[in-house]
């Protein structure tokens, strides 16, 4: 129990609702061939932010609390499978009651492991070519080490920040959750994962030094944009509020501007990964 508490205290947040739906669609590649891409969304845990004021630079949310979502995503592509984000630490799986952290800021829980959830779609961790994390906070890297045979797609500055010699000591809780990822492809900006425009990692720093979001153009009525932790809930997007614990708040605001310009350019449907409301909306979309 002490190890779990030490692992979680003082880091950023986030939570979830049971979401496990997939859809099949397609895209036309450069040769005009129809290929199938499948997206699945899974439950990576749940966090209740008991002190929501941490999610703004001022006292806007003083005295408020909110349940936040924490999902991870699987994209099956003809050129390989990608897992996006890693949920909360799997040490939480099997705990009888949610864990309230010291100080009472957050209450966390996770119901199921990634291995067990992948069984529902007939996959194992060995079936993945890539793993990409929006950023290296505890609620996004919970099962990262399980994918040690996959290639980790990570911004070079993010990798250096969380794996350097000093970080291995000062941020050992984070480092230990990603240290098995030895097959590393370091990025410096945006990256088209499969080379066809369907799955694109977009660099959006600020929440962490190498934070990134995911663009999916996979045959729906509109492309999708998964926000990582650029925003945590709708009000923060509307009013461009940044959590006080961000790595660089001015950098975050610049990324917000770039994100919104890109979303408008692509007419993309934005899904805030930690918004419970957006998870409900995504479920509805996937059922169509």
Notes on the structure:
The protein is an alpha/beta fold and 288 residues long. It has a single domain, classed as Ribonuclease Z/Hydroxyacylglutathione hydrolase-like (Metallo-beta-lactamase, Chain A, 4-Layer Sandwich), CATH 3.60.15.10. 24% of the residues lie in helices and 27% in strands. The protein has eight helices and 14 strands. It has helices spanning 2-8, 114-118, 156-163, 165-170, 172-178, 234-238, 249-266, 276-287; strands at residues 21-28, 34-49, 66-77, 80-84, 99-100, 106-109, 130-132, 151-155, 184-187, 191-192, 199-203, 212-216, 224-226, 269-271. The strands form two sheets. Strands 1, 2, 3, 4, 5, 6, 7, 8 and 9 form a nine-stranded mixed β-sheet that branches. It has a five-stranded mixed β-sheet with strand order 10-11-12-13-14, with helices on one face. Strand 12 (212-216) and strand 13 form a beta hairpin. The termini are far apart. Residues 1-34 have low confidence and may be disordered.
Describe the SSE topology:
Elements: H1 2-8, E1 21-28, E2 34-49, E3 66-77, E4 80-84, E5 99-100, E6 106-109, H2 114-118, E7 130-132, E8 151-155, H3 156-163, H4 165-170, H5 172-178, E9 184-187, E10 191-192, E11 199-203, E12 212-216, E13 224-226, H6 234-238, H7 249-266, E14 269-271, H8 276-287
Parallel strand pairs: 4-7, 7-8, 8-9, 13-14
Antiparallel strand pairs: 1-2, 2-3, 2-6, 3-4, 5-6, 10-11, 11-12, 12-13
Summary tags:
Metallo-beta-lactamase, Chain A, about 290 residues, alpha/beta, about 25% helix, disordered N terminus, 8 helices, 9-stranded mixed β-sheet
């Amino acid at each position: 129990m002490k190890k779990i508490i030490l692992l979680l205290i003082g880091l950023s947040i986030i939570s979830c609702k049971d979401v496990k739906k997939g859809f099949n669609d397609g895209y036309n590649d450069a040769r005009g061939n129809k290929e199938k891409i499948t997206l699945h969304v899974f439950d990576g845990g749940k966090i209740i932010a008991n002190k929501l004021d941490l999610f703004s630079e001022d006292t806007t949310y003083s005295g408020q609390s909110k349940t936040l979502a924490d999902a991870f995503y699987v994209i099956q592509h003809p050129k390989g499978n990608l897992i996006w984000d890693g949920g909360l630490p799997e040490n939480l799986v099997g705990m009888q009651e949610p864990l309230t952290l010291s100080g009472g800021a957050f209450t966390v829980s996770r119901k199921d492991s990634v291995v067990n959830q992948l069984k529902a779609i007939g996959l194992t961790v060995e079936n993945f070519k890539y793993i990409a994390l929006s950023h290296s906070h505890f609620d996004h890297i919970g099962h990262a080490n399980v994918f040690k045979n996959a290639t980790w797609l990570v911004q070079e500055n993010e990798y250096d920040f969380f794996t350097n010699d000093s970080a291995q000591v000062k941020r050992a809780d984070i480092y230990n959750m990603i240290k098995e990822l030895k097959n590393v492809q370091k990025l410096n900006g945006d990256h088209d994962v499969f080379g066809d425009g369907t799955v694109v990692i977009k660099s959006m720093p600020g929440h962490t030094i190498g934070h990134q979001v995911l663009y999916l153009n996979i045959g729906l009525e509109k492309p999708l944009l998964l926000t990582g932790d650029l925003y945590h809930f709708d009000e923060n997007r509307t009013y461009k509020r940044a959590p006080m614990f961000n790595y660089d708040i001015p950098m975050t605001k610049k990324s917000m501007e770039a994100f919104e310009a890109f979303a408008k350019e692509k007419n993309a449907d934005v899904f805030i990964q930690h918004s419970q409301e957006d998870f409900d909306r995504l479920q509805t979309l996937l059922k169509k």
